[in-house]
Structures are given as C-alpha cells and as structure tokens.
Amino acid sequence: MSTKHLLKSHFDRAAGYTRNSSNPLFALVRPPWLFMAPIVALLLFMFVGPMLAIVVFSLQSGNTIDPNPLGWTLAHYAEIITGMISGTGVYGQVLANTALVSAATVLATLVVSYPAAYALARKIKRYKVVFLLLLIIPLFTSVNVRVFGWALFLVENGVLHSLFNLVGVGEYPSLLYNRYTVLFGTTYVYLPFMLFPIYLSLLTIDDVTFEAAQDLGAGPLTIFRKIVFPLSMPGVVIGSLFVFVLSLGADVEAQILGGGSVFTMASNINYSFGYSQNWPLGSAQAVGLLLITIVAGVLILRSLDLREIASRGESR
C-alpha cells in the first residue's frame, strides 16, 4: 500500500469514528456546531477575556495585578456603594443621570420609531427601498463623526447661528451643552436600533390576519389595539433593550453635546481610566455597569416568548 493510500485509510477511519461516536466532545467538532467555532473563539478572546481582566483589576489596590488573591480588596466597590447610599461623591448623581438618559432615550426613540416602522411595514409600497436606505445610511458613519457634526451645527457662531441671522434672529438660548441636547443626540444616534426591530416584527404579521379582522367588523383602531400592537411587542421589547443598553454606555454624546452638564457612568469610567489613572476604580464602575446591563437584559428578555417569535419566522 502506498503512503498516500495509507494516510487516506487512517483519515477515513478517524473520520468514521468521529461521525459514529456518541461522545459529546466529538459532536462539538462536527457540523453544525463546528460552524459556530470561529464566533465562539472570537467571543472568548474579545469579550470573556477582557471582562475577566476588568473584574480582576477591580479587586486590585493599584494599577498592577497582584497574582496573590489574598492581596485583593473590595475597597473600590465599598467606595462606590457607600457613595450611592450616603449621597457623597458623584456616584449617586451619575447613576441617576445614566438611568434617566437611558429611559428617556428609550421613550423618545419609541415615540418616533413606531409610526415610521408601521408605515414602512404596512402602508408604503413605492420607494420603500429608498426610505430604508435613508435610514440605514447613517449607520455607515461613525458615531463620533455624527456627534461632532451636530456640535458644529449647534455651536455659537456655527451653522444654526448663521441660519437664525438670515431670518433676523440675533439672540437665542444656547442649544449646546445642556441635558436636552444630550437626549436629542442619543435619540438620533440610537433611533435605528428601535426602528428596525419594530419594523421586522410588524412584517411577520400575516395579511390574512388583517383581512379576517376586517371581515369580522373590526375598525382600524380595534385592529391596532388588539392585533398590531400586541404582535409587534417583541420588536418593541427588543428595540427597547438595544436602545437602553447602548444608552447606558453613552459617553461621546454626554461629553461633546453635554459639555460636562451631564456626567454619566460611561463618562465617569472614561475619567477614571484616563485623567485620574485609577484603573481599579474605573474597573469597579465598569463591573457595576455590566451588572446593570445584564440584569436589565434578563428582566426584559424574560417578558418575551422566544419560541413563539421563532415560530413566526418558520411559518412564513
């Protein structure tokens, strides 16, 4: 037997053993699980690893990792929690600002997105692709570029000031560096993350459902209240989760559009890692923000029937 045939026989024997084995470890190296291997490896390297590093750093007393766990400390967590309870320091105010901006952004994006998603999914037939492209194109641009563009538009002696001068308005309140502008910026940046889940959820409603409701005498308001809105709730919930989680990390909007008028948790973490060079304190705040995100995600996703959502896609 030649070397080529010998190697082939060994390979075929090993492959046959792998296919026929009931060992779950061998099952993981066969399709379809094998196809998941690259993304699992990427997540382990790019997400799990850095998260573990942040957790370990949050327990250190300085900007170097002590390999001896007996030297680790919870002092930074105690400082944050004590500050929130007692009202000393900035932690309580920062947490309140972050929660308020995130909740207000969810509400604002929902109010703006739902009518547009409904129109795109159920009413607009011509030029729908054009409208969808106009909504997608901003996602191709960096958040920093978009926010800096708004700062140049709103800044004193900027584009807006020139436009007001053209119509004879010389004096007006500054629209930059206040909390309402931060909310406007987060609403604008995270709007697509609310709109597209609602749009896709509305697309899964069969036309037969509308026809049956109309045949039974239901009016437009009744159809919306009893059919459209309940069936679009998965999109509303998922969109709210996306916007809320992304708004928790809003830093660029708070710094550039807020100009220090609103200090969020993300801004505070950035300050600890950068200006104050207190990496353990910044890591402890990052762990706190991560816990808030996980708890919010779990609570929101528990309200969804994911099997029912998946079955909608299979039925179409």
Task: Offer a few descriptive terms.
316 residues; mainly alpha; globular
Task: Walk me through the structure.
72% of the residues lie in helices and 0% in strands. The protein has helices at residues 3-20, 24-27, 37-57, 75-86, 91-123, 128-136, 143-154, 159-166, 179-203, 207-215, 220-248, 252-257, 265-273, 279-301, 306-315. The chain is globular, with a radius of gyration of 26 Å. It contains 15 helices and no strands. The protein has 316 residues and is mainly alpha-helical. The protein starts with a helix and ends with a helix.
Stretches where pLDDT is under 50 for at least 5 consecutive residues are none
How many E-type strands?
A: 0
Helix content: over 70%
Give the helix tally: 15
Return the average pLDDT rounded to an integer: 83
N→C terminal distance: 55 Å
Backbone structural class: mainly alpha
Q: What is the H-and-E element order?
A: HHHHHHHHHHHHHHH
Q: What does the main sheet amount to?
A: none
